[in-house]
Amino acid sequence: MRTSTLLLALLAVGLLAGCGKKSAATADANGRIKIRFQTDWFPQPEHGGYYQALAKGFYAEEGLDVEIVRGGPNAQVMATVATQRAQIGMTNGDDVIVAVGRGVPLKMVAAEMQRDAQGILYHAENPIRDLRDLDGKTIMAGAGSIWLQVAQKKLGIHFNIQPLVGDLARFMSDKKFIQQCFVTNEPFFVRQRGAEAGALLIARPGEYEPYRVMFTSDAFLTEHPDVVRRFVRASVRGWIDYLTGDPVPGNNLIKQARADLPDEFFAYSIKAMKDYELVLGDAARGEKMGQLTPARIETQLKLLSDLGFLERPLAVKDVATFDLLPSESR
Predict the structure, then answer these.
(1) Are residue 73 and residue 124 in the same domain, yes or no?
(2) Which residues, 6 or more positions from 315, have their beta carbon under 8 angstroms from its beta carbon?
(3) Is the pLDDT of residue 290 over 60?
(4) Are 67 and 85 in contact (CB under 8 A)?
(5) Cα 182 to chain center, whole Å?
(6) pTM for this predicted structure
(7) 101 with 300: CB under 8 angstroms?
(8) Bridge-partner residues for 181, per DSSP?
(9) Which residues span the domain enclosing 192?
(10) How many domains does the chain have?
(11) What does the alpha-carbon distance between residue 101 and residue 95 come to, in Å, rounded to a whole number?
């Protein structure tokens, strides 16, 4: 189970020591530029567009030799990219902004999801229809999650928090239990175990709507902007193909690393990404796969500043670049 973490201790000690070194871009035997792409969690359909791009040769067509590095509970994605053990990574956009505010030289280069997939998991017998329904309740959630501060300080909601643990045992044993989840993930496994559960997406237009993003280090972006542009272009192509075409090539690659995932989970997760308009976006709002907009990032900067998460003032240009997005994402 993932939760958005700010890596406070990690960013505070020694992270920047290696950030000033030159970032090399090496080529394989076929002349393709090698890229290590660090994911936030174990391989799963939420990474499907990248695996689709790899399986169908979209990265190779861009002259790239991409290695998708599996994440997990201790992935430390931002540290890995900042210290150039990987060239590009993926994580919650809030975390990148907070890291930049702490002096970590990173830039968002594209959106993987137009809104973060974090949600509230509840039993159907006790539905949660709005974040305000959490008032007075107890919820198991990641203590460092920014959305908790948004709910409590911006919306005036008061609730108790239990530390988040990585299993569903407590949820399954208590019909009134509420916990943080990913809407593309935990609801499936709850239903698989026989419970009727629902999920409420935390993101809300005008209140709290962070991107999930692809990002790189300032050094690698400065030295190799065209390499990053090609990675973004192939990834956007992979995501569109994965969600609107046949996802089998990407799924088969994921299954090589995750034989434990049933076919039904792939179908569920892909449907959830479509139903919640996470990746391809809401066309009625002008959203597109990969799209980042200065206006939304400006709104997020103000929110994070108002909540006290930023250690210094930041401008949009400090945290994101828009020059590398393909035309279909603008």
Answers:
(1) no
(2) 301
(3) yes
(4) no
(5) 11
(6) 0.92
(7) no
(8) 119
(9) 118-201
(10) 2
(11) 10
